[in-house]
Amino acid sequence: xxxxxxxxxxxxxxxxxxxxxxxxxxxxxxxxxxxxxxxxxxxxxxxxxxxxxxxxxxxxxxxxxxxxxxxxxxxxxxxxxxxxxxxxxxxxxxxxxxxxxxxxxxxxxxxxxxxxxxxx
Length: 120
Hints:
alpha/beta
């Protein structure tokens, strides 16, 4: 990643302030899961969180979108000059408020780090 791309990415991370909260097991109703789609989904058992928990996934895959219309996947061909995903793809996920947001990546995937930083 070039220094201009890296600076643009860092600026976008700074705009997201995060407050760390620890919800009780009984108050968890929604879980957002972010993972690298090339490695497969490491989905936890929703029953571990509570009885009625909705989960929503978002992942990144290398390659081109082609005819894939799934809006919970961002492909490397979707990324802009700064290697960030377009808002039209990520907006439904980042606008949703989750009780818990789990990032299963190792922190080196810049598009998914951006999505984590922008999520509510």
